[in-house]
Amino acid sequence: MALLYDEIFLSVNGESKSMGLPTTFVRLWGCPVGCSYCDQPQPKERRKKISVGRLIKKVEDLKCKRVCITGGEPLIHEEIYPVIYELVVGGYEVSVETSGCVPIEPDSYNRSFRYVMDVKCPSSGVFCKIEVQ
């Protein structure tokens, strides 16, 4: 299993419940949403492939137990849930930043991570949910 990603880095979180805290960011590549004000355009030349195991190793090497999986739109990647669960089992606090345009898994009562949703307002130019294949 492989994912397309842009970068993996350590920084200070600027949003949500983890604002101001050191966080490892896993920025996956690709987003079908097409917001008019996209703050993370991703040129194809930055797209890289990584295995789930190698991604986990890169996160471990940064030695920060707080991880934010972002993008693009991370929920377009089929391999995202194996990554999340591997991190959670490893003792990581995981959040997933999503646009709200892709359906989330339904087992909220069994979830050991959190979603941070960037709801798309009319000025984004996004008017409906995206069909993910």
Low-pLDDT stretches: none
User: What is CATH's topology name?
Assistant: TIM Barrel
What is the beta-strand fraction? Answer: 25-35%
Note the overall shape.
Answer: globular
Strand count? 6
Q: Output mean pLDDT.
A: 85
Please give a quick description of this structure.
The protein has 133 residues and is α/β, with parallel strands linked by helices. It has helices at 52-61, 80-89; strands at residues 2-12, 22-28, 48-51, 66-70, 93-98, 114-117. Helix 1 packs across helix 2.
Q: What report would you give on this structure?
A:
The chain has a single domain, classed as Alpha-Beta Barrel (TIM Barrel). 15% of the residues lie in helices and 28% in strands. The chain contains 2 helices and 6 strands; from the N terminus they run βββαβαββ. The protein has helices spanning 52-61, 80-89, and strands at residues 2-12, 22-28, 48-51, 66-70, 93-98, 114-117. Helix 1 (52-61) crosses helix 2. The chain is globular, with a radius of gyration of 14 Å.
